[in-house]
């Protein structure tokens, strides 16, 4: 088996700016047609502020991982212990379009699952937009099932119209 040309490591504080740039690049290519450009900008600002990520890096039970190759960051995941200590919530998992379907997302998800098991959690949970068919198909391929539909107000008149997905860990 050939080793991948990338590796997964924990995100460091000096990489937050690169993470924000990658998130913007991915979102601006993936989400038009799912949510409006104005909502994309709002959510990017809401979720990828450097101060917020820096705070999350220092929190117990919160992890940021990144996939990188020799050219830089190609993907990332953020996950944390849920209010229910038997669950980990996968909050973000994104891969640069040029690196999708090359095992990067699966490897990031595998790392999340490993940490969940290490923490004694039996379930992974996440949310994804109901119209994000690519993500829904990918998560279902990896054993997630839709357990609920939710609409959540996120401010400025915007809502997230999501499915909740869960995966039981063996």
What is the strand and helix layout of this fold?
Elements: E1 7-10, H1 16-30, H2 37-47, H3 50-57, E2 62-69, E3 72-81, E4 87-95, H4 104-118, E5 123-129, H5 133-141, E6 145-155, E7 158-168
Parallel strand pairs: 4-5
Antiparallel strand pairs: 1-2, 2-3, 3-4, 5-7, 6-7
Pfam family, one: Acetyltransf_1
Protein name: N-acetyltransferase domain-containing protein
InterPro entries: Acyl_CoA_acyltransferase, Bact_Acetyltransf, GNAT_dom
Question: Can you describe this structure?
Answer:
- The protein has one domain: 3-Layer(aba) Sandwich (Aminopeptidase), CATH 3.40.630.
- 34% of the residues lie in helices and 35% in strands.
- The protein contains five helices and seven strands, in the order E-H-H-H-E-E-E-H-E-H-E-E.
- The chain has a seven-stranded mixed β-sheet with strand order 1-2-3-4-5-7-6, sandwiched between helices.
- Strand 3 and strand 4 form a beta hairpin.
- It starts with 6 loop residues before the first strand and ends with a strand.
- The mean pLDDT is 96.
- Residues 8-170 form the N-acetyltransferase domain.
């Amino acid at each position: 088996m050939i080793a991948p040309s990338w590796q997964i490591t924990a995100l460091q504080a000096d990489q937050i700016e690169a993470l924000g740039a990658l998130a913007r690049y991915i979102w601006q290519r993936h989400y038009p047609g799912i949510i409006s450009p104005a909502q994309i900008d709002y959510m990017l600002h809401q979720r990828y502020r450097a101060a917020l990520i820096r705070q999350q890096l220092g929190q117990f039970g919160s992890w940021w991982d990144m996939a990188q190759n020799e050219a830089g960051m190609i993907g990332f995941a953020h996950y944390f212990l849920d209010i229910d200590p038997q669950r980990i919530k996968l909050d973000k998992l994104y891969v640069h379009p040029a690196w999708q379907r090359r095992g990067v997302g699966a490897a990031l998800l595998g790392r999340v699952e490993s940490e969940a098991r290490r923490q004694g959690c039996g379930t992974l949970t996440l949310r994804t937009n109901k119209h994000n068919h690519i993500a829904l198909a990918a998560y279902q391929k990896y054993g997630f099932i839709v357990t609920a539909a939710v609409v959540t107000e996120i401010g400025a008149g915007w809502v997230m119209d999501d499915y909740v997905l869960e995966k039981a860990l063996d």
